[in-house]
Specification:
single chain; 383 residues; alpha+beta; Beta-lactamase; nine-stranded mixed beta sheet; 12 helices; 16 strands
Length: 383
Amino acid sequence: MNKKMTWLLGILFILFGCDQSKTSGKENISKTTEERIVIGSLESEGMDSVQISKMTKAITDQSYPNIHSVLIARNGKLVYENYFLGKDEILGESIGLVKHNKDSLHDIRSVSKSIVSACIGIAISQGKIKNEDQKIWDFFPEYNDLNTGEKSNITIKHLLTMSSGLEWNEMIPYTDPANSEVRMDYSPDPVKFVLSQKSVTAPGTIWNYNGGGTQILAAIIKKVTGVETDEYAREYIFKPLGITQFFWIKFPSTQIPIAASGLRLRSRDMLKFGLLYMNKGIWNERQILSEAWVRDSHKSYINRGDSATGSGGYGYQFWIWKDTINNKPINIVAAIGNGDQRIFFDHENDLLVVTTAGNYNKWDIKNNADALVRNYIYPSFIK
């Protein structure tokens, strides 16, 4: 999201070398767990290298503008990885032209929401949360005066599926101070701000894009574990996956991680997170997420039809839709972030695609990451 507030100091830390092991979770992890990514080839996994070469050319000649990285995994193997020169930002602050590479941290914006969802799943498996049907007010007795009317029925599942029924507007530009997420960011108490919003529909009935719900999920993680989401993710997701570098930007007033959009990761580490879901929650023979949680996360619970973001469904902080390519039906799940940050999951075709880009707040780009996947990657193996 475009958050041009008072975070210049944090951005300078990112650019010029703060000790991230203390501020954002960077640590040294054994080389035995660092990668665990199996490398394959396009041809061996049934993909047309000529078609993918055309995709590379379309990116480099800017027919598909300002794409920074594309990684493709098929049948669990990394078969394509490329990085590109492009203009970039850190939470709305320009950092100019960047030569991206496999070690570059990149804003993943709202892909952060999917990481928070995974944290909820792990906390449930650890018995720290009963289940996703638990009422959110169990965790916030200090805000019981806000527990009124339909709001009393809001569950964790309603937050995961963006169907809490709370009044929230992120359909206006993030440069507009009336945007609900921007208002939350300026609030001295983001949790109270979200919970104080009035109820406009019954929970579970209407989908409405709401980053505030993700912030409440992160607050629940802190309540039940005693640590903030960045530390919890570091211990139970990043460390097992061998993710050694990340930066989770925090609210300047509270130093709480910006759950909905503040995470920066390497593209390869986005791929690892994706492979975790493609492999039913298993990484390096270890069950990190329960198979049931992976399945449930990528299931549609509510229709996004008639919304400003188009039709389709929504899972546990994942977008879901159907498509048809070369007369073949396709089921796609995606973690999506502002600016063309994407993790595309196709379980039936065992396809995983990661993209990063610098198209922040540009909603009308025709040749975006979605089009790249549809026009080049799928035609490389669907004839």
